[in-house]
């Protein structure tokens, strides 16, 4: 009898705590979900904003202004938005980025929609946070071309509109590089995109996807094996496992094998120095995650990108080497490109022509809402205007 009572007590205690957890989640969901588009994590504002850099309306507005301002670049011709264009899901249409003086980088500009969810920034994750990332393009000679952060800060301090904006945002007239990074990343965290046809379908609207898209989804989750990496998790429908994977895209680069072989023959002691040296050689950026981790199994691995809005951002892959989504699907159908580190999830798939077409159609159903911050390129400020 006593035991039964004890058990009953435990059950009641369990139920009570379950109900209170449910209630607090519910209250949180209601309060926060109003401006998180359908399909994105309901806990976005709770878990993806660092405590040190809270969102405020003034900060987001200042970040937006900086993001579109070409005067931040060395010669006044390039803004963040030159390569991350609102009308192209905040990516561009070039295989690799083009910065000041038309200098070409080595990698494709990624969409920065939903970048708030990344656990590392860049194709190789070399920046841990958005704050850290946001100030690097300024002093990248192939991007915005400034010599030093001090140059940028001196320029901003000479512009009364920025002196006022920093004063209003941070409560003091200071302008420094950390505050620039904080403002830009607060703006970037508002670049959310959801409510794609797939989200509406999963939320219960059974006509939101047509037959070809439904067949494509079945291939995506089944014979195509795509969800092994582009995860479809009910609560985190972000189409990425946020890992670094070797699909063999890098192995298509003519220098890749030579560079990789040198690394495979080096001892642990020699590695850091050798990595530094190889990074600056032609094709060095193809070493991918290894440049950051110095781990030999990361040679040729890159961040699994989210596939939301992917139909808006050709060309594809970290090097822009696939012109269309059909090319991407063909690449996977052949099992990626073989190399020493090829991910074990990749195998030739043997998909029919129709299955491949359906897969491409399905990827189109991941195009979602676009944040209302768009400022046409023609309206972007450049230095001649002041
Ligand atoms: C010249 C083109 C260019 C400009 C200008 C530029 N970017 Fe980028 N951006 C890129 C490229 C290319 C990458 C990927 C580079 C890599 O992975 O090595 C990138 C990566 C990023 C990422 C990481 C996204 C991810 O998914 O990993 C963020 C965030 C970002 N840029 C924000 C900015 C901000 C903020 C600015 C302005 C301060 C800016 N970019 C200026 C081309 C550009
Ligand atoms: C082993 C993990 C893995 C699997 C399985 C996988 N992907 Fe990927 N996917 C990646 C990685 C990593 C990249 C980036 C590769 C690079 O650029 O080097 C990528 C890139 C892409 C891109 C280009 C995105 C862009 O913005 O450039 C598309 C589209 C894509 N994958 C679709 C698919 C489809 C469709 C399937 C199933 C047929 C699939 N992926 C299977 C890991 C994977």
Number of helices: 15
Looking at the structure, what is the overall shape?
globular
Report the C-alpha radius of gyration, rounded.
Answer: 23 Å
| CATH superfamily annotation of the largest domain | Cytochrome c-like domain
Q: What's the number of structural domains?
A: 2
CATH topology of the largest domain: Cytochrome Bc1 Complex, Chain D, domain 2
Characterize the structure shown:
- This protein has 386 residues and is an all-alpha fold.
- The chain folds into 2 domains: 57-192, Cytochrome c-like domain (Cytochrome Bc1 Complex, Chain D, domain 2, Orthogonal Bundle), CATH 1.10.760.10; 197-364, Cytochrome c-like domain (Cytochrome Bc1 Complex, Chain D, domain 2, Orthogonal Bundle), CATH 1.10.760.10.
- Helix content is 38%, strand content 1%.
- A two-stranded antiparallel sheet has the order 1-2.
- One heme C binds next to helix 14.
What's this entry about, in short?
Helix content is 38%, strand content 1%. With 386 residues, it is mainly alpha-helical.
Q: What is the topology?
A:
Elements: H1 2-32, H2 44-47, H3 57-67, H4 80-83, H5 130-134, H6 149-157, H7 160-170, H8 177-188, H9 197-202, H10 211-221, E1 244-245, H11 256-264, H12 271-279, H13 290-293, E2 302-303, H14 325-333, H15 353-364
Antiparallel strand pairs: 1-2
Bound molecules: heme C (2 copies).
Characteristics:
386 residues, Cytochrome Bc1 Complex, Chain D, domain 2, 2 domains, 15 helices, 2 strands, globular
């Amino acid at each position: 009898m006593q035991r039964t009572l004890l058990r009953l007590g435990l059950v009641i205690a369990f139920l009570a705590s379950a109900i209170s957890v449910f209630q607090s989640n519910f209250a949180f969901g209601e309060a926060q979900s109003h401006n998180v588009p359908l399909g994105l994590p309901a806990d976005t504002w709770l878990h993806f904003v660092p405590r040190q850099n809270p969102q405020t309306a003034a900060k987001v507005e200042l970040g937006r202004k900086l993001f579109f301002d070409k005067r931040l670049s060395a010669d006044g011709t390039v803004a963040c938005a030159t390569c991350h264009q609102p009308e192209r899901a905040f990516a561009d249409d070039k295989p690799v980025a083009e910065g000041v003086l038309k200098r070409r980088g080595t990698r494709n500009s990624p969409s920065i929609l939903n970048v708030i969810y990344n656990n590392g920034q860049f194709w190789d994750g070399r920046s841990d946070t958005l704050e850290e990332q946001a100030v690097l393009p300024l002093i990248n000679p192939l991007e915005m071309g400034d010599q030093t952060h001090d140059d940028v800060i001196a320029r901003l301090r000479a512009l009364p509109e920025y002196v006022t904006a920093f004063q209003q945002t941070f409560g003091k007239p200071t302008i420094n590089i950390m505050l620039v990074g904080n403002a830009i990343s607060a703006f970037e965290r508002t670049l959310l995109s959801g409510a794609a046809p797939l989200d509406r379908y999963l939320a219960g609207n059974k006509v939101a996807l047509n037959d070809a898209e439904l067949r494509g989804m079945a291939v995506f989750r089944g014979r195509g094996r795509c969800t092994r990496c582009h995860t479809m998790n009910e609560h985190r429908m972000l189409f990425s496992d946020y890992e670094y994977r070797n699909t063999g895209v890098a192995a298509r680069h003519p220098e890749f094998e030579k560079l990789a072989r040198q690394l495979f023959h080096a001892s642990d002691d020699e590695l850091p120095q050798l990595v530094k040296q190889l990074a600056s050689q032609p094709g060095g950026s193809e070493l991918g995650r290894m440049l950051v981790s110095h781990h030999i199994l990361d040679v040729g691995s890159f961040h699994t990108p989210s596939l939301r809005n992917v139909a808006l951002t050709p060309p594809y892959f970290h090097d822009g080497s696939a012109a269309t989504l059909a090319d991407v699907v063909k690449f996977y159908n052949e099992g990626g490109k073989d190399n020493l580190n090829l991910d074990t999830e990749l195998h030739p798939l043997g998909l029919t022509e129709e299955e491949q077409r359906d897969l491409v159609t399905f990827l189109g159903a991941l195009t979602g809402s676009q944040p209302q911050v768009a400022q046409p390129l023609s309206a972007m400020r450049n230095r001649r205007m002041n």
